[in-house]
């Protein structure tokens, strides 16, 4: 079969497959570890019918902290070592663009306090502002909120005379109202906050670039019903912006199912195989990668678009009885353990 002809070469034998795991709704539900998750990941460490280690990565539309911090937590939750080279979060792809903004003032939204400022600076952004900095500079920008002592101590000075060049929504915003207000301010004035003249006269200034890192309208948490994700924030912002200006604001969308995120993931997988001395430059690895996910709109749509194989599990957003999935997976499984078993049976 095509897959065998382009399987993954390991020093002793080929691994005919590689896996890409979604996290929320597949391995975790909120803080809960799904019961099959630990057994499933041990299958990839050699306890399988192929009798070999099977390359695998994790692609999540989640995030909020640096990859190494998230990996330490995932390693303790899942009982197997997970390295930063195996983890792609919603904002990880921004590592590949950060150098273009190294000296430009940018707004970073989402997550807690200034956790994501630290992540952005680790990626190479050097002039990062957060909505908390702006609110600390002038609380009347949004009078219905008071910074917590934690936020105030983490805020940094904000200079309203310097225009912001781009706004990146790294992770799910915690204060939609404050963030939507600030986005509407800077996008209408091409980068400035609090200057009425610039609201009315944007001549000669470049529009602010707007980037979202996670399109999920819904995601699978430990609540019995799927929760609204960063895609909901995007639609709330666009609804207010359109009411104010008559049109939606143009934006770049990363995260699953975007092609950029899956191409970035494929490069990570190839690097992983390089490390194992198994790279083969002209190998088309697509169909030999199995994306295991719970959300047809992100995991299955993205894998199908990238010409990977896809397995939809019923432990997260998609639930048995909710009708055919909006994107047809290669296979369907009850849970992550069954998904791996089905893929290995199919490839052996
Ligand atoms: O915020 C996380 C959520 O949108 C989805 O995460 O791991 O299911 O892609 P995941
Ligand atoms: Mg998920």
Automatic annotation (TrEMBL):
Xref: InterPro entries: CDP-alcohol_PTase-I, HAD-like_sf, HAD-SF_hydro_IIA, HAD-SF_hydro_IIA_CECR5, HAD_sf
Domain of life of the native organism: Eukaryota
GO BP terms, alphabetized: glycerophospholipid biosynthetic process
UniProt xrefs under Pfam families: Hydrolase_6, Hydrolase_like
A single cellular component GO annotation: mitochondrion
Keywords: Hydrolase
GO MF annotation terms: hydrolase activity
Name listed for the protein in its UniProt record: HAD hydrolase
Species of provenance: Rickenella mellea
């Amino acid at each position: 079969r095509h897959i065998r002809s382009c399987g993954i070469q390991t020093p002793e034998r080929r691994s005919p497959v590689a896996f890409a795991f979604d996290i929320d709704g597949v391995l975790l539900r909120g803080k809960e570890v799904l019961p099959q998750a630990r057994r499933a990941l041990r299958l990839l460490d050699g306890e399988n019918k192929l009798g070999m280690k099977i390359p695998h990565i994790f692609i999540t539309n989640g995030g909020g902290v640096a990859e190494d911090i998230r990996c330490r937590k995932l390693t303790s939750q899942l009982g197997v070592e997970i390295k930063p080279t195996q983890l792609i979060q919603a904002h990880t792809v921004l590592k590949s663009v950060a150098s273009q903004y190294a000296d430009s003032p940018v707004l970073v939204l989402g997550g807690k306090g200034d956790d994501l400022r630290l992540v952005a600076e680790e990626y190479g952004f050097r002039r990062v502002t957060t909505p908390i900095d702006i609110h600390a500079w002038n609380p009347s920008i949004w009078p219905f909120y008071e910074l917590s002592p934690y936020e105030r101590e983490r805020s940094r000075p904000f200079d309203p005379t310097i225009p912001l060049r781009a706004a990146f929504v790294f992770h799910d915003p915690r204060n939609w109202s404050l963030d939507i207000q600030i986005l509407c301010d800077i996008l209408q004035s091409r980068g400035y906050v609090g200057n009425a003249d610039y609201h009315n006269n944007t001549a000669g200034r470049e529009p602010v670039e707007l980037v979202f890192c996670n399109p999920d309208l819904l995601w699978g948490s430990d609540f019995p019903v799927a929760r609204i994700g960063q895609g909901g924030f995007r639609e709330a912002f666009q609804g207010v912006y359109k009411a104010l200006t008559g049109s939606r604001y143009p934006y770049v969308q990363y995260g699953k199912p975007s092609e950029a995120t899956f191409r970035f993931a494929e490069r990570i997988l190839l690097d992983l195989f390089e490390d194992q001395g198994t790279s083969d430059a002209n190998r088309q690895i697509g169909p030999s990668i199995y994306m295991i996910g719970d959300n047809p709109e992100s995991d299955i749509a993205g894998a199908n678009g990238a010409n990977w194989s896809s397995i939809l599990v019923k432990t997260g957003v998609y639930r048995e009885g909710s009708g055919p999935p909006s994107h047809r997976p290669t296979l369907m499984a009850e849970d992550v353990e069954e998904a791996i078993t089905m893929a290995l049976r199919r490839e052996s």
